[in-house]
## 1
Amino acid sequence: MFKKILVANRGEIAVRVIRACKEMGVGAVAVFSEADREALHVSLADESYCIGGALSKDSYLNMENIISAAIAARAEGIHPGYGFLSENARFAAMCREHGVAFIGPEAETIARMGDKLSAKRAMKEAGLPVIPGGDLSDGAEAAAEAEKTGYPLLIKARAGGGGRGIRLVKSADLFLREYRYASLEAANAFGDGSLYAEKYLSPVKHIEVQILADNYGNVAALGERDCSAQRKNQKLIEESPAAALSEKTRRRLYAASISAAEKINYRSAGTIEFLMDAHENFYFLEMNTRLQVEHPVTEMVTGVDLVKWQIRIAAGATLDFSQKDVTLNGCAIECRINAEDAYQNFKPSAGRVNMLHIPGGPWVRFDTAVYHGYAVPPFYDSNLGKLIVWAKTRDEAVRKMKAALCELIIEGVAHNADFLLDILSRPEFENGNYDTNILSTMLKDAGHDI
């Protein structure tokens, strides 16, 4: 086991990883930007290093400074969390070159699955159904490929993630304009403006399967999550298990995900994402080669600590359970608490938290880096924390989440708890038959911009 790990992230996920390290008896090293000197993860770590200015490019995306901090601290491993460098193949390779373990899959696997077309080819070879589409090169060739895919279609960034670099195109006359916008956004977000086309499927559910794989060929699927409640491809509510999913389809999803992980010799925690239609036909969407934001719902229903297992696997441990040992107990729901005003076109908010009350009670969890007096910086994503509940039944879990959202108090910054309550109260959410259109429908009904 590692003696010391550097956490190359900030916010609630940095706090989450540091807590796991402490429970495992592993030293934790924090890195921080100039804007995060007073951040909670800095206080919780055993030691900390400033790695640059407030902007992400100068700090949390500064590979050289992070590697230098790890070497200075004599850290044996680097945990990237999610976002930032967590799916950066070059960073994973740099860690290896400098003799520091990257707590995640191999650089080559990240590169292969990070290129969305390459990932689709790999999954097709593994026997998974994939959404029709193809590569988009410049000009007339791109338009010709779009015609082959057929309208409506989605233009997507090959190096994409987090909902960026995506455009819905409903007709050929709009294609070139949306192509240019998507390419520019992709270049700005990922440093790569290359795109591909994908047939637009609607209505669909967004279902993902959590996997764990060690270095010795052992793979387990730890249940599925329904992530269909999202706005502009950004998830807001996740739950496990997925409601209204037949056991037959659930078994097929697990078998497909395990087969895919075995085919690419995957290791560490990872998530295989699918789109599923009303007839439970599912299609591979993408693979996230990192810890997901929504990993706590899987932990709540399986009792498996995903962060600890990431660390153990990177240290050479073997999974001490198999697929037959995985059982889903009850239902867990996660709501992302964001610093934004949902009913003012999701206007972002920053400022000092002058009052904080965190909900409590049995099986209520709030993963956050916010504390009383904390100044929410304007430089990073809007997430303030993740509210997670567990109950024996889905109906009880929905009621528990509503109660917890009502109890949550964060004063000083705007946040979206009331908006999340409105989603949970929609009839289609309550009966579990919602799809990825739930938020756009809800906002249109309320007369708001989607």
## 2
Amino acid sequence: MVYLLAVFLTYLLAGVFLLPIIQSLGNFSVNAYIAIAIIVGVFGLIEIREYFKPGDTSILEIPSRYSEKIKLWKEKMLNNYGFTFLMGAFVAIVELPCTGAVYLAVLTLMSQSGLEVSNIVMLIAYNFLFILPLIIILVIFYKGVSSEKITQTVNKYKPYMRLATGILLLLLALWMARFALV
């Protein structure tokens, strides 16, 4: 739970920090908004490509230099809440470029109204939904399902998650482009 809290708070703080920056770009020009839509669309195409050719695109994964450190450090997380929190924040930061396309699209859409209470509530809801699969995995693990079985199941459905994410990103990009051109 400490690890999940760290991931949640890191993403939330990233959103609070990035939202005004994206808003200033949007105020600067419609072209910046369209450029972000194109970036989101490209990431959507990369995700779809990963469905058809798994493992071809390393941009969507945590760089190996970080994943190796995470593997080494995970043993230190047991019974060390401070280290566990720092690991969650570290993983969220190095994972942000991998998972950030959807977040970028959501933040860009939110940027139309600026940093308001309703957007903060939406960021909290989005980030809760982001960590919800991790919470579900934690509950399943707590109920006695082995980590090997969980990994098998995740790997079995990973291509479909990639495809769904790619389609979602393309739809978001199209929606953003349409929104910018209206």
## 3
Amino acid sequence: MRIRGLSVAALILFAWSAPSVRADDSERNLFKDSIEANKQSIAHDTLDAFYQDALDYYHAKRYDESQELLDKIYSIDPSYQDVAQLRDTIRKLKASRQNASVQDAVAQDMHQGNQAYSQGQNIIAINYWKQALAVDPGYAPAKKKIQQVNHALAQRQFEEGYLHYHHGELEDALDAWSNAIALDPTYKQRGLLLLMSKVDLSVQNNQISRLALQAEEQYQGGQLEPALQSYEELLKLQPRHEEARRMSAKIKIQLGEAAFKAARSSFGRRQYAEAIKNWQASLGYNFETVQSQKGIRMAQAALEPSKKPSKKSRSKPSAASVAASSTTAASAQAAAPPPAQAVNPEEAMVHYRRGLVAIRGKDYHVALEELNIAYQLDSTNEHIYVARQRAQQGWAAANTPEGAAP
């Protein structure tokens, strides 16, 4: 735009920089209107350029780039042409494309799972169906197939439990029935829990008798520590077992006295570290606690001059921190997608057996740690899968507040 042969910008500069020139009010208003019109023209040209680029991206199906430009236009002028409608259209197209991608991934996992199932590879099939659920948590066909396989596995465990029961293998029967319930909780309503409680009582009585005999034989053979361990296991099963309580107290006195004497002997030979170790053992058996604590302080004081601080010493991680890190690692491994094939079946079975021992001892935290590792090493093993399901159920039951729904 030009006024009296000069551009707007030149005229403004001339009017405001020359002292001898005095613009009247009408000229000042003209200048202001011209500047505002110029600004609007530039803004409109910019929006037009953005909009044209957005349309080009839209027709090329580059929806992310198109939406980014449309968002800029909308933030400046929400009523500009059909920007609002086009933004909404792109959102719907992107959502549709994402849904199609999800459906493709689910279909692929379901197909691989169905193939594995048709070949009798039940656990591999379940792994694929679970991957489909990870993509689409509400996908009913995957849930149904997993439930069907779990039901079939539970039926097999239920029948194996009765075979063990009729052969007098009561602990194995309890294990099998517990597996059946973990895989299919409906077995709880089939009278199985009542039978299991009766069998469990019988197993417990047998264990008490076996442990009592074992502890007595160990004590008579001079194996005091194993005997104490057996008596303590017996007391876990039957806390009011009088003989176990009496013998546990007696053995602790004997072991504590031996440790206390060994500590004094080590201290006399200036073997202060060994003395501390033995006095700590004495404390563990609650023997001469005051004297043992005093002896530890004396031995520590005697060791003090020989200690030399190391500049590069590094603190060793505590057992608690190591346990916490291993738990985190096991949880992360459990959360990661399982491998389709076995990685190390032999090592997996080592962790599987440890997990079973922990389950029988109702230590579900350790059981899950071991079985998660086993599952990562061999996610195709049916025994590992079943035991892991049982440990997960046990952990959930143990950590459900009383009165709350499991």
## 4
Amino acid sequence: MNGPPVLVRGVGDIGSAIAHRLFIEEYNVALHDDPKPTTTRRGMAFADAVFDGRAVLDGVRAMRFDDLLQVRRAAAARAAIPVCVRPLAAVLAVLQPWAVVDARMHKHSQPDIHLGLAAFTVALGPALTAGRHADAIVETSWDDLGRVITQGASLPLAGEPREIGGHARDRYLYAPVDGVFQTALRIGDTVRKGQEVARVGAMVLSAPLDGVLRGLTHDAVPVTEGTKVIEIDPRGQAAAARGIAERPRRIADGVLAAIKASPMASTI
């Protein structure tokens, strides 16, 4: 699609699913995040392009570029989704996106205001208000998942995550202290209950149950206390550790619907 790109903030599974869907729909799309994102579901995302220079998700490539002019050219060329980690202000100045999507899913921190950063803005997450945080909000709760909100707010943060194999929050591990996350394991590895999975400083993080590593923050990434760093899927070989999952896919459908319904869409 001709015209300036859509900038998606967040290389996690949600942001990656959105970028993937927009790319398939022939939008010029670019991804943006921090230089060392704490993303856990890296097999379900483009996050490793930040660390390794490239990543593939469900048949679509992403490549990291540090030169912002190259990012803009790559978005227009559409051979791969460009990923950049430069400061946001510089990215906006060079790319001049017509739409910005905040898919970072910061559930517990004060949400950023994206309204006004581009001609059209979309934000995802709990308790966000259309017309205040962004032009449109896309619901991320399983209740009403993917609904586009142009008036009012998204649902507040829900309690527990959905169960997988009879396990909910107990399949996650969080950083016990501030420090550098260290692990020798990989996404998709099988672990046993009590096995050391990673360390944050001198603190050992042991698997709380048997299963497959569905989520694992990249080695050598600084984390703060309370950051989600490990997710274990108890289904063993049936675990889904790679590819776009149902929730990100449905959220991406909502973002696409919001963009298509935007008054600005007809001008691109």
